[in-house]
Design goal:
Its cofactor is [2Fe-2S] cluster. Keywords: 2Fe-2S, Cell membrane, Disulfide bond, Electron transport, Iron, Iron-sulfur, Membrane, Metal-binding, Oxidoreductase, Respiratory chain, Transmembrane, Transmembrane helix, Transport. The protein folds into two domains: about 110 residues; about 180 residues, Rieske [2Fe-2S] iron-sulphur domain (Rieske Iron-sulfur Protein, 3-layer Sandwich), CATH 2.102.10. Helices cover about 30% and strands about 10% of the residues. The chain contains eight helices and 13 strands. The strands form four sheets. The chain has a five-stranded antiparallel sheet with strand order 3-4-5-6-11. A hairpin with a 2-residue loop joins β1 and β2. It is flat. Bound molecules: FE2/S2 (inorganic) cluster. FE2/S2 (inorganic) cluster binds next to loops.
């Protein structure tokens, strides 16, 4: 709606009016309130100030981009990971600088549109939205006929039970939310796997034990704990330790599915001299044979892309890379934790078994993780 007395005096300095003509015709746009000019439309100082604010946001975004590059090259993510406030410094600063830079561009564009781009009301003429009286009557008749045919008015029992069924249909959804709660995400269920001292490693499909002599340098096998792979008769045997003792009772089908997803491992042989000997896991390998969880610590993809020369293991999902010669440390990518390692031993015949569960919880991070 036009209010000619309030038109701004400012222009673009070239003799052109910067503000488009507002709507004038009461009949064309009935009921439209009088146009209110923004401070930046009527005050050249406010306009300049807004322009500088937008430019400052874009400059801030450039600074963030430069800081991103600085952070990329400054923080160590190799053998020694730099930390800041307990977080991986590289991931933290890369995320912050990239996020703030993007945010500044977004806010700058919004401010530009709000304060400086042209500000006019536009009326678009449309035909009336309401249906004709005749159409409404026809629709109403069709609805009434449908209700009569369904008999819903004559059958209160069906009507009431249908309403009840619809009301109860939402209950399973609400109950299923419980699975997201702390009870089912308890740390103890995620911290422990099926592995325990004395449990043999078997090949994941065949279920046969792995002998140290079976592996050449550079070989990589997928393994599982004995007791999770059905025998040739289709039964799950109870796992037996090196001294013939039964380690755990055989599992039922549901337990099997739960344990299987957590316990998968990869077994790799490298030259013993290539292994970085960390004091707390001095003898965790058997002749250069090491064992790690197969579940990526980023978001849990199974990992198996091995680079023989470097002993790096690559996750195909988002390219997190772990150094298997150095305690499974993250050397690249978004994973926030080393790959959990298992202490290995071999019995008198050379078959490999675990000396205990993994050194830390398997899989991605979660709130309660230490
Ligand atoms: S799940 Fe492995 S890098 Fe994302």
């Amino acid at each position: 709606m036009s209010d000619q007395s309030n038109l701004p005096a400012s222009g673009d300095g070239a003799g052109h009016s910067r503000v488009p003509e507002p709507l004038e015709d009461q009949d064309v746009a009935p009921g439209l309130p009088a146009h209110v000019w923004r401070p930046t439309d009527v005050d050249p100082k406010a306009e300049k100030r807004a322009e500088r604010q937008v430019a400052a946001l874009f400059i801030f975004s450039m600074v963030c981009a430069v800081l991103f590059v600085v952070a990329y090259f400054s923080f160590e993510i190799g053998r020694e990971i730099d930390t800041f406030l307990g977080f991986g410094a590289s991931n933290l600063f890369l995320g912050l600088t990239l996020g703030l830079g993007m945010l500044a561009i977004g806010v700058g564009v919004i401010q530009w549109a709000r304060k400086l781009m042209s500000d006019v009301e536009i009326a678009e003429l449309r035909h009336p939205a309401a249906s004709s009286e005749e159409d409404r009557e026809t629709t109403l008749k069709a609805l009434t006929a449908g209700l009569d045919e369904s008999g819903i008015g004559r059958r209160p029992l069906i009507r009431n039970t249908l309403l009840g069924a619809l009301a109860f249909a939402g209950v399973p959804l609400v109950v299923a939310l419980r699975d997201l709660g702390p009870r089912n995400m308890s740390a103890s269920r995620l911290e422990k796997t099926f592995w325990m001292e004395g449990m043999y490693i078997v090949r994941d499909v065949l279920g046969t034990r792995i002998n140290r002599a079976d592996l050449e340098i550079g070989d990589l096998l997928n393994g599982e704990p004995e007791g999770l792979v059905p025998n040739s008769e289709g039964h799950l045997p109870a796992p037996i330790g090196p001294n013939g003792q039964e380690l755990r009772p055989a599992l039922d089908h549901e337990q099997l599915l739960i344990e299987k997803v957590k316990s998968a491992v990869i077994v790799l042989r490298m030259s013993p001299g290539d292994i970085v000997r960390n004091p707390d896991r001095e003898n965790w390998d058997v002749d250069g044979i090491v064992c790690y969880s197969k579940i990526c610590t980023h978001v849990g993809c199974p990992i198996a892309l091995n680079e023989q020369q470097t002993h790096h293991l690559l996750c195909p999902c988002h390219q997190s890379t772990f150094d298997l010669a150095d305690s499974g440390k993250v050397v690249f990518g978004p994973a926030g934790h080393s790959l959990p390692q298992m202490h290995l031993a071999a019995d008198d015949e050379g078959y490999l078994y675990a000396m205990g569960d993994f050194d830390e919880p398997v899989g991605p991070s979660y709130w309660e993780r230490g």
